[in-house]
Amino acid sequence: MAAVPYDQREGVIWMNGEMVDWPDANLHVLSHGLHYASCVFEGERVYGGEIFKLTEHTERLHESARVLGFEIPYSVAEIDRACRDVVKAHGLSEGYVRPVAWRGSEMMGVSAQETRINVAVAAWDWGSYFDPAERLKGIRLSMAEYRRPDPKTAPAKSKAAGLYMICTIEKHRAEAAGYADALMLDWRGQVAEATGANVFFVKGEVLHTPTPDCFLDGITRRSVMDLARKRGLDIVERAIMPEEMADFEQCFITGTAAEVTPVSEIGPYSFQVGEITEALLNDYMALVQPAEEMAATA
Predict the structure, then answer these.
(1) Does this model's pTM top 0.85?
(2) How far is residue 123 from each of residues 48, 84, 92, 94, 181, measured CA to CA in Å?
(3) Facing residues of 252 across strands?
(4) What is the distance of C-alpha 11 from the center of its chain?
(5) What is the pLDDT of residues 206-221, one digit of tens each?
């Protein structure tokens, strides 16, 4: 059965301060955000009816807007409340939340100082980002052709819609070739990230991960690093060249959508789903799941 298109679903979406029926949450075809990518967003997971690290996500939404040169007309607390209200309105126990802010249609052209800043929050049921069976044995990644840009050429520290254009291209290219995702290098040829997730490698008892100087230092990434430190694992943030992947034993990616997902292959390089990867996956799921839900599944 075909999935219901996202513009035809039932429910409500919070938009510019009020709840509107899902099909009525529209923007004009001449909205600046559509033509010039003046749009920022967040992706958040709901576990047991609670949004994981909601305020951190909302603060990043505000910061992303600042980087793009506009101010969101709702406070962090107001957007936090809107996110919770939408989750409650849909009765979601497990799901996904998408806050988004964009420039409207009051001006058309690169210059857009007088456009309205619109804000919306939607939420829906959403399971695993990757096929559950593939995820447990490790997903396969291709090597992307596009590279993450130099921060001097793009607002790399924002979660801006325009930065995901090359991610969609590479995700589609990978899937067409039978892979689950793609690993992107940066403009220097160093390992950067997957199309929507940060990457970690394991060698011995040490985690190696690229320095986030041209891509987002993900909220899930930081959470997993905290969990690794609690296990006494060393973490090295550094420049990683692609040929170094031949020497790593394990690999996994992290992100709101990906959570903690083991990787078995990146291009010509192979990895095992080892104890450290499995431990951090389990630690992360224990962190995000409410205590009573974890007890019920134990």
Answers:
(1) yes
(2) 14, 10, 8, 10, 24
(3) 200, 262
(4) 24
(5) 999 999 999 999 999 9
Beta pairing partners, 44: 97
Residue 159 bears catalytic tag:
yes
Select from 197, 179, 195 the least CA-distant residue to 267: 179
Which domains are present in the chain? 8-124 (3.30.470.10), 132-288 (3.20.10.10)
CA dist 242 and 24 (Å) reads 47
Would you state the pLDDT for residue 1?
A: 37
Do residues 143 and 266 lie in contact, with contact meaning Cβ atoms separated by under 8 Å?
yes
Specify whether the CB–CB gap between 236 and 265 falls below 8 A.
Answer: no
The residues that bridge with 271 in the sheet, in sequence order, are none
Catalytic residue, chosen from 53, 137, 159, 230, is 159
C-alpha–C-alpha distance, residues 252 and 235, integer Å: 14
